[in-house]
């Protein structure tokens, strides 16, 4: 699945014309490049701080990136302001760009509290495209 999607991103697969904008959004979201003057500014990130051992959220693997799938009401992540569909870009001081999904989960589990998470919202259509 990941290989097929990456082939589409590289132009070696089929994708409908109307999916072109989503294709670029997915590529930029999950495989970011260096910013250029012609590229639109990235979606603003936000940072939350979790003080308890339990995070109060679940995550999912979308193209080897870790996305918040659910936020449990009245638990740590919810109270800190985490939003469903956000990409975890930093766990503490560690960038997640070079981590696999499972390495990111290990970082979430092993990091000392309070835990700072840097998150970036991802459009639902981009997530859906990445899940296919």
UniProtKB/TrEMBL annotation:
UniProt xrefs under SUPFAM superfamilies: PDZ domain-like
Domain PDZ: 55-123
Pfam families attached to this UniProt entry: PDZ
InterPro entries found in the cross-reference section: PDZ, PDZ_sf
CDD domains in UniProt: PDZ_canonical (cd00136)
Region annotated Disordered, chain positions: 1-25
Protein name listed in UniProt: PDZ domain-containing protein
Species of provenance: Triparma columacea
């Amino acid at each position: 699945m990941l290989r097929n999607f990456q082939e589409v991103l590289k132009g070696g697969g089929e994708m409908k014309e109307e999916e072109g904008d989503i294709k670029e959004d997915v590529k930029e979201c999950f495989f970011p490049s260096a910013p250029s003057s012609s590229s639109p500014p990235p979606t603003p990130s936000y940072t939350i701080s979790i003080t308890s051992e339990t995070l109060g959220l679940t995550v999912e693997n979308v193209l080897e990136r870790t996305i918040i799938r659910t936020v449990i009401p009245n638990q740590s992540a919810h109270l800190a302001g985490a939003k469903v569909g956000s990409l975890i870009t930093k766990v503490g001081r560690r960038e997640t760009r070079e981590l696999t999904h499972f390495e990111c989960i290990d970082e979430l589990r092993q990091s000392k509290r309070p835990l700072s998470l840097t998150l970036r919202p991802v459009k639902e259509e981009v997530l859906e495209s990445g899940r296919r």
